[in-house]
Design brief:
This protein is mainly alpha-helical. The chain is built from 24 helices and 2 strands. A hairpin with a 2-residue loop joins β1 and β2. α6 crosses α21. It is found in: Membrane.
Length: 505
């Protein structure tokens, strides 16, 4: 479609001319490798933690448990705080890095922030692949977390700001698509390296590839027009917009960007503005959607898929292969979201998926409660059914709460609080990802199969949240989101009315 027909989008009654240009496609793919970087790490950590060589070197207690079938119950073999810290330390570091990234994203631009992300990630990978002890391993994970924090802050904003409005959802979901591709690639590599001596070093070392691509890509892609205007480079911003849109007539869209940036300059303290009554709806939605995304249970499954399948009685190679299958489903289903998000909207996808995810989780829990004993495994047929149900769950998440968790927060803030608000969204994602990663194996040990009922209860709450509180943002220009979305919503409009009354009084 590069250089194809016009894609027009409405901005307050004005039609913005835009082509899907080669520079948009290239810039978006290069930027979205931040998602590939994130996804690879999510996938690789679960795989290496099930590899005997890795466990023997860093977690000998867990290794001994896995070798003695009668030593521990199915649900508790991997219950180890150090092992959980290996996975979760990245997200705790990402939480801290996000707030620094908010500053660099606003002051230095989206592009430079992605450059910093790539640098941190590559250095962290080198330490991980060369690790000789647990301390070196954790320090490497912390640096990876800094890279993830910077990338997750800058990339979704970059994608939302560079995309034509009518294709904003699909373009933004490129980030989530490459997250799923990263998970799949990591699962495939883990499956191959599990047969090698010290294969875990290869798995961890190959994470440098997406980090390096992001680093190099950040040197060659264009900065977004809103970011350039924010930094006082209006002429460059206009030229960038013309280049991105592939047309000379960008007056209406550029004026809207300039107006938004001028309003943003009046706000000297964006974090303070964020906590005013009128800032609450976007802040609440963007943070709670991150909490819900984690409490679907998806990261528990994706982090520990090989471990989870071993818990169900699969052998080591079979568990890694099952993780590959879920990774394939994850990638395929994300294409559904790319196709549907700008056609059917955000809310319908979320509602449909909530129903499908709820049924899948309840069914998995029911099978495990009734058929999985403390030791031993499931019979072949039931094990296959569980894999299908896990795939059904992953599928629905991949076209809904996965991509929407990044898309919606990137498009619901006015420009003056956009980077600050998105920083809260990313940091919330990081802290709850950390909580789930740090707690899941212990929860699995203590709650056993009932953990799936725990997550399904959360999914029920999420469906109600979408019905009553989540507005639709399909086709709404980012600069007009306050007027068209928040001030029109039956619940959230009251916050703007109350603030207006206070100002008048």
């Amino acid at each position: 479609m590069a250089g194809g027909g016009f894609a027009t989008s409405s901005g307050g009654g004005t039609e913005f001319e835009a082509k899907i240009t080669p520079i948009v496609i290239i810039s978006c793919i290069m930027a979205a490798t931040g998602g590939l970087m994130f996804g690879y790490d999510v996938g690789v950590s679960g795989g290496v933690t099930s590899m005997p060589d890795f466990l023997k070197k860093f977690f000998p207690v867990v290794y001994r448990r896995t070798q003695d079938e009668g030593l521990d119950s199915n649900y508790c073999k991997y219950d180890n705080q150090g092992l959980q810290l290996f996975t979760s330390s990245l997200y705790l570091a990402g939480l801290t890095a996000t707030f620094f990234a908010s500053y660099t994203t606003r002051r230095l631009g989206r592009r430079l922030t992605m450059l910093i992300a790539g640098f941190f990630f590559v250095v962290g990978v080198v330490l991980n692949a060369a690790a000789q002890d647990l301390a070196m391993l954790i320090i490497g994970r912390i640096l990876l977390g800094c890279g993830v924090g910077f990338a997750n802050q800058a990339v979704p904003l970059f994608l939302s700001e560079i995309a034509p409005i009518n294709h904003r959802g699909a373009v933004n979901i490129l980030f989530q698509l490459l997250v799923t591709v990263g998970i799949l690639v990591a699962n495939l590599i883990n499956y191959g390296t599990s047969m090698m001596k010290h294969g875990w070093r290869v798995s961890l070392g190959l994470a440098a590839v997406p980090g390096f691509i992001l680093f190099i890509g950040s040197l060659v892609i264009t900065e977004t027009p809103p970011s350039l205007v924010e930094m006082g480079k209006e002429m460059e911003g206009r030229a960038a917009l013309q280049k991105i849109r592939g047309v000379d007539n960008v007056d209406a869209e550029f004026q809207q960007i300039v107006t938004g940036c001028e309003q943003a300059k009046q706000v000297k303290k964006p974090f303070k503005k964020l906590f005013k009554k009128s800032g609450f709806p976007a802040l609440f939605i963007s943070t709670i959607i991150q909490v819900f995304q984690q409490f679907t249970g998806i990261n528990a499954i994706m982090f520990y898929a090989p471990v989870l399948f071993q818990t169900l009685g699969f052998k080591s190679d079979a568990s890694l292969l099952s993780a590959v299958i879920t990774g394939l489903v994850n990638v395929g289903a994300t294409f559904v979201s790319i196709y549907a998000v700008d056609k059917v909207g955000r809310r319908k996808l979320l509602l449909q998926a909530s129903i499908q995810m709820f049924i899948s989780q309840v069914a998995i829990g029911a099978i495990l409660v009734t058929h999985l004993k403390a030791t031993g495994g499931l019979d072949r047929v039931l094990a296959a059914v569980v894999v299908v149900l896990v795939c059904t769950f992953v599928m629905s998440f991949a076209w809904s709460w996965g991509p929407m968790g990044w898309l919606i927060p990137s498009e619901i803030f006015p420009i003056e609080t956009r980077t600050a608000g998105f920083a809260f969204a990313v940091s919330t994602n990081m802290i709850f990802t950390f909580i789930i990663a740090q707690a899941f194996l212990s929860m699995l040990c203590h709650m056993k199969a009932y953990i799936f009922f725990f997550f399904s209860a959360w999914i029920l709450v999420m469906g109600l949240f979408v019905v009553f509180l989540l507005p639709e943002t399909k086709g709404v220009p980012i600069e007009l989101v306050e007027e068209r979305v928040w001030k029109q919503h039956p619940v959230w409009k009251k916050f703007f009315e109350d603030e207006r009354k206070e100002t008048t009084d």
